[in-house]
Amino acid sequence: MEDMEEESSGLNDDHNHNYCENRASGQVHFLRTELSNEPQTLPIFPVLGTRDVAAQENHTKICSSSSSGSKFVDSDSNSVNSETSETDSASPASIAGKLTLNSASKFLMNAMTEEDYRTTYWPNLEKAIDHLLIQNPMDHISISYEQIYSYVYKCVCQQHSELLYKDLMLKITTHLQQVSSDLQIVPPGNFIEHFNIALTQYTDALQCIVPVFIYMNKFYIETKLNRHLREDLMKLFTDHVAEKHVNTLIPLLLEAHSMPFQVRPSTMASVVKGLYTLRPDWAHLAPALFSGFIPQINPPTVESQLSDYAAHDQKLQMELSQNGFPRGDQSRKRASEESA
């Protein structure tokens, strides 16, 4: 009984009652089969790679010794450690230096020179801006806004924001100077209509230009200039178009306002509101005109001036009746009401 316990002491039993002896003590497994209770010996043929063979051969070598005694070192672990020793021995400073050099080299390879900007990026942006400024609302022009935004993004990232801003302002200034020159030869009878077309077309173009240049606006104009791109572009229209023609435009608007439907009401409203948006102080040039389209232009009502307000309303009614707007039959409360 004791002999059996001694023999079984070298065996390991798993949960399926398969007995396997340690590989180091014979390399033999004893497996219990389903048909027999007798254990069967199955030899194990390990498949060793080149690395494993070398590891086993080197495992028995003595690698180092000292005065206090000999030391046995596992060659396989040494080989693994030797592969990672270079990486482990590298200091954080050297790794950071390599990353910095790699990033700098990539940045230099992708760097945009001023010549690249002038020959590649700005010509494409200029062409897109031309299409946006002169397009007819009825015409369909295919423009890749994604590509325009990508060009603007690259120019800003490559430190060409100031150059891009100056080119954009110069381009739009040149366009507005041409618009102003075209308005100078327009007959007075068509001037209000042509001015409205120029203003509407420009504001519609800004609805496309400002969004695609939003990256430049955010990281250059707002940050360094403390302004907004749309405000700067609207100021260009004020300086180069509206201000040069306001003295001609206001008298024509007053004349059209005194003669109903000489100019379409929608056109009148668009021009007057546009002028007020460009420069609110222009409302003082014609308060009666602007108060008809812009609320709260006139000062608040004062009780002491109620008689003046009534006289003004009576005058307006007289002017309307003289211009062909009858007041109707005033003998009845309702003109369409029939007597019972």
Automatic annotation (TrEMBL):
Which terms in the Gene Ontology molecular function aspect does this entry carry?
A: protein kinase binding; ubiquitin protein ligase binding
- Composition bias (Basic and acidic residues) maps to 329-340
- Spell out the Pfam families in the cross-references: Cullin (PF00888)
Give the Cullin N-terminal domain ranges. Answer: 122-254
- Residue ranges annotated as compositionally biased, kind Low complexity, are 64-79
Q: Which GO terms describe its biological process?
A: G1/S transition of mitotic cell cycle; ubiquitin-dependent protein catabolic process
Source species, domain of life: Eukaryota
Q: Where is the composition biased (Polar residues)?
A: 80-92
Q: InterPro entries from the entry?
A: CACUL1, Cullin_N, Cullin_repeat-like_dom_sf
Q: Where is this region: Disordered?
A: 1-20, 59-92, 317-340
PANTHER family (UniProt xref): CDK2-ASSOCIATED AND CULLIN DOMAIN-CONTAINING PROTEIN 1
The UniProt similarity line reads: Belongs to the cullin family.
- Name of protein: Cullin N-terminal domain-containing protein
Q: Please report the organism this UniProt entry assigns to the protein.
A: Oncorhynchus mykiss
Question: Which gene does this sequence derive from?
Answer: LOC110502262
